[in-house]
Task: inverse folding
């Protein structure tokens, strides 16, 4: 049994994203699963999808606007600490079987490593030499680098609880230093070897590959990574991506 979760708040993505994501899981996930949407507007979301009011995720109400984007994800790690859980972003396109979920080790929470970050390969050799947040900020901060993201996160039982606890306890500092959750995770937890990552040939990105907008049929999931509006969202695309996405109605 897998418990899938997604967030939808605000107006950037509508109910179609939620329903199609659910239908894509029905097609490609062979394991028994539940699907829950945390939202401020449940209108037109399929009846088979569990709904949680976004107002329940108000642990960071003191956060200034524009800081620590998607910090709400960490609340799931605290509240849902039994069984196998997976957090999905709405702007992903599942187009192949999810059999890689059958035998995963969840001793640590699992995130996505940005293997497609081909623009900065000469910085990979410095990764193993990062021993402190200060040195991480020195090496990567000038290029605004983050090599990981939280579009598809898996955890089991209480294995990810520490992320919420650490963030909440130092939230005032985190608000000041980090503009996104992914950046916080990269500088705070990746360098301490507290996170695991999915194998390489599972995820790719629509907007930011060396050859963008390319269909990789042997991969499982395409990420759109367009939270800041510097690429195409699923509903803005055409061709192969739109055909697959529309098929999940």
Result:
């Amino acid at each position: 049994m897998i418990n899938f979760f997604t967030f939808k708040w605000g107006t950037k993505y509508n109910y179609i994203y939620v329903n199609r994501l659910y239908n894509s899981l029905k097609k490609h996930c062979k394991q028994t699963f539940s699907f829950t949407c945390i939202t401020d507007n449940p209108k037109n979301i399929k009846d088979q999808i569990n709904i949680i009011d976004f107002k329940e995720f108000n642990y960071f109400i003191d956060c200034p606007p524009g800081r620590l984007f998607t910090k709400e994800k960490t609340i799931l790690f605290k509240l849902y600490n039994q069984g196998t859980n997976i957090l999905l972003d709405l702007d992903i396109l599942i187009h192949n079987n999810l059999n890689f979920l059958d035998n995963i080790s969840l001793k640590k929470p699992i995130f996505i490593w940005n293997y497609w970050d081909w623009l900065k390969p000469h910085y990979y050799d410095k990764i193993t030499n990062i021993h402190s947040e200060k040195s991480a900020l020195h090496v990567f901060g000038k290029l605004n680098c983050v090599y990981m993201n939280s579009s598809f996160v898996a955890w089991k039982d209480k294995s990810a609880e520490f992320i919420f606890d650490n963030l909440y306890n130092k939230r005032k500092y985190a608000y000041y230093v980090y503009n996104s959750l992914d950046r916080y995770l990269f500088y705070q937890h990746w360098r301490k070897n507290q996170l695991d990552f999915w194998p390489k040939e599972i995820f790719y990105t629509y907007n930011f590959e060396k050859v963008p907008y390319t269909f990789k049929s042997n991969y499982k999931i395409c990420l759109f990574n367009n939270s800041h509006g510097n690429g195409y969202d699923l509903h803005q695309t055409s061709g192969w991506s739109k055909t697959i996405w529309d098929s999940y109605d």
Observations:
- The CA atoms of residues 23 and 239 lie 20 Å apart.
